[in-house]
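Record 1 of the preview.
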Amino acid sequence: MPKYIIERDIPGAGDLTPDQLKGISQTSCGVLNNMGPQIQWVESFVTGNKIYCVYIAPNEHMIMEHAQKGGFPANSISKITAIINPVTAE
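->
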């Protein structure tokens, strides 16, 4: 199943409190539970004004549907074509 990176423009994301992040996570998980097992949230990275999320889904449409239902921006959706790390250099 394809893996995607979603870029979400959220001004002040880096200043969100743990409780606010928990609430966002709960909203996301609730939407995912209603959508079924074919879409999965892997992890997210919070930066100053953006959140970068990694998802597994059959297509970009499903990622957009999740964003719309959850009230999240999905400013950019990119399909991951390869993963590299330090072990790749060996």
